[in-house]
Amino acid sequence: MRLDILGLQAFIAVADHGGFQAAADAIHLSQTALSHRVSKLEAELGVPLFTRTTRTVALTREGFSLLPRARRLIHELHTSLHDIRMQGMLRQPKIEVGCVPTLAVAMLTPILAEFAQMHPEHRVRVFDGYASLIAEQVNSGELEFGLTIRRATHSHLSFKPLLEDRFVVVCRDDNPLAGEREVSLASLNHHSLIRNVISAEVLVSSGEIINWRYEAENVSTAIEMARLGMGATIVPSIGLPVGPGSGLAVLDLVEPSVMRIIGILRRPDVPLSDGARALMELVQSRVGAEQASLDVLPTSSIGRIEQ
After folding, report:
1. Where would I find the HTH lysR-type domain in this sequence (predicted)?
2. Which of 12, 153, 212, 277 satisfies CB 3.0 to 4.6 Å to 272 for a cystine?
3. Do 297 and 182 touch, CB atoms closer than 8 A?
């Protein structure tokens, strides 16, 4: 006898809801269609499963016997189908890449959305962490490549520069600095300064002694502190949450001007998977277009942060 899955589901629905109309509503069928499924199942089994009157529907002895078995059968079927779907998902190609947090939202996520439309067969895991951790995971093979910052310690890895990101000073729009177009590191000594893990590199490389008042590990935390009027902070310009209503002012950092180099980091001795190569090429294309749209200072006048 053929297994009647639809009939069993209809039978369980009527038993659970105590009537044909309520069961039909619950599983989005007409009462006629539901009754037909139950009657067909009863005909195949050769026994009635319900006693029907004008007012009530009750399980027969055979119906009571079938109900727990039908539940187990449908549950096992759903579980088996779910397991098979999951196995199929696990066989989908998986790409693992890294991206520093300051670039992940503003730059990588739009590229990933475009990639998902082009290559829906791929799964992607993004590790958004510090450049040093991305380098470690690229070197170990955990990540196929990283969109990250050039560091001196990357000499054993392949780094392809794509973009120069200017450092700027951010403060609240009513800060005394907000009326200026540019500010030097030395002049910041006269203002409350919020240091973050990236601006710390700027301060060390400049040789300037800065009296900072607050410190935050994360750039977004430092920006929020600046928004609340606690001081000014030095941050990369890409992805800044500025604009009408942001409450923030952005000033060029001069004397010295500082930039960081953004690019693709990977192991030169390990070939990329097809999916990772396609994603890397899309990143290079889109980030390269971003570089072309930026007003970049002449490289002779720019200090560089390799972090």
Report:
1. 1-60
2. 277
3. no
Question: Would you state the pLDDT for residue 223?
Answer: 92
The two structure tokens encoding residue 305 = 């942060």
The CA distance from 100 to 81, in Å, is 39
Going by the DSSP 8-state scheme, the letter that residue 187 receives in this structure is G
Task: Report the alpha-carbon distance of residue 191 to residue 231 in Å, rounded.
Answer: 7
Structure token pair of residue 175: 């800060």
The answer to whether the bond into 256 is cis (omega within 30° of 0) is yes
197: closest CA among 267, 131, 103, 98?
Answer: 131
What's the fold here for domain 94-163+262-305?
Answer: D-Maltodextrin-Binding Protein; domain 2 (3.40.190)
Q: Where are the domains of the chain?
A: 5-89, 94-163+262-305, 165-258
The full length of the chain comes to 307
Q: Which is more confidently placed, 53 or 182?
A: 182
Most distant CA pair in the chain: distance in Å? Answer: 94
Q: How many angstroms separate the CA atoms of 136 and 122, rounded?
A: 24
Give the CATH number of domain 5-89.
1.10.10.10
User: Does the predicted TM-score (pTM) go above 0.70?
Assistant: no
Alpha carbon separation from 184 to 190, 208, 221, 247 (Å, rounded): 11, 10, 23, 22
At 133-179, the pLDDT tens digits run: 999 999 999 999 999 988 766 677 899 999 888 889 999 999 989 88
